[in-house]
Amino acid sequence: MNESNAKRIAYCGIEGAFAHIAAKKIFPNDNLIPFPSFKKAYDSVEKNECDYAVLPLENSFAGDVNQVFDLMFRGKLYVTKMFKLKIEQTLLGIKGTKLSDIKTVISHQQAIDQCIEYIHSHNFQIETASNTAIAANLVSQKNDKSFAAIGSEETANLYNLEIIEKNINENEENTTRFAVFSNKLPNFNNKGQNCSFIILFTIKNEPGSLAKAIKVFGDSGYNLKSLKSHPVKNVPWRYYFYTEVEGSLMTDKGITLLEKLAEECIDVISPGFYIDEE
After folding, report:
1. Among 59-63, 118-122, 126-130, 136-140, where is mean pLDDT lowest?
2. What integer pLDDT is reported at residue 190 of this predicted model?
3. Residues 103 and 54 placed together within one structural domain of the fold
4. Domain range spanning residue 224?
C-alpha cells in the first residue's frame, strides 16, 4: 500500500499490547498510532487526527471495559466492525529468571483478573500497569528477577524478556472483543440479515419502563443478542442500557423500532452497525 493511502489507526497502549496486536490484524497495511488512554484514542478520531480507533469492548472472562462503553454513550463515533482476539496470557521475566525467583507480577488489571487463580497459586504480589506491553517494558527496565510481567508472547522479543510460562489465563477460551470506531457509518449494505446493530438508551423513572423498552424490540420483530446496564457518570442511580440486536436498522422495520423506542425512552442512540463474523 502506498504510504500516502495508508489509514491512521489509533489504539491504546504501546507496541506489543493486545490492542496493538488486534489493530495490526484488522489493519495490516496501515499506520498504527499509540495513545496513552482509551479517551485520547477515541478523541483522535473525533478530531479527524486518525481514521479509526481500535478499542477493547469486553473480555469473555473479565467482563466489560466500562470506559469504552461510556465513550460510546457520550461520544459521536460509530462502531463499524467487531473483532474477536483470542487472548493467551504469558508470564515474562528477564533473561535467566526461574519461576521460583518471581515475587511480584505486573500487568493491566484485566490481565490480572484473567490470571488471578494462577497468581494466587504462586503467592505473587500484584502491581498494575496501564497495559500489558507497558508492564513488560517496566520489568525489562527493572532488570530484577523477582519481577515478572503478564502479557502477550510478542512482547518477549520486543522488550528482551524470556517466556517463563505460557497460557496462564484461567479460561482457555479467553477472548477479547474489540470495536472499530469511525467518524463515518460503515460502507456495507446494512439491509442484509447477516449484520447486527447497537442501540443505547435511557429510560423514564417510572414502574415498568425497562420492561416496556425491551418489549419494543420483540414487538418489532428483533432479537436482542445482548443487554447490559452501565451507570451514567455524574448522575447517581441513573443507568443507560447497551443492546446488540440481530438484523438491520436500515429498513422500515428499523425506523419503526426507533420511533417506538423514542416513545418509551428518554435517550435513544444508535452508534453502529457491523457484519456478524463468527
Report:
1. 59-63
2. 57
3. no
4. 195-275
pTM of the predicted protein model: 0.88
pLDDT band at 1 (very low <50, low <70, confident <90, very high): very low
The 8 Å CB, 24+ separation contacts for 185-190 are 185/78, 185/80, 185/273, 186/78, 186/80, 186/81, 186/272, 186/273, 186/274, 188/273, 188/275, 190/248, 190/249, 190/250, 190/273
The amino acid occupying position 147 is: F
Q: How far apart are CA 103 and CA 186, in angstroms?
A: 48
Nearest to 274 by CA among 52, 71, 60, 17: 52
Give me the phi and psi of 53, to 5 degrees please. -125, 135
CATH number at residue 259: 3.30.70.260
Q: 73 and 101: one domain? A: no
Q: Are 169 and 61 in contact (CB under 8 A)?
A: yes
Listed residues 118, 151, 182: the one ending a domain: 182
Please check whether residue 269 is in contact with residue 200, taking contact to mean a CB–CB distance below 8 angstroms.
yes
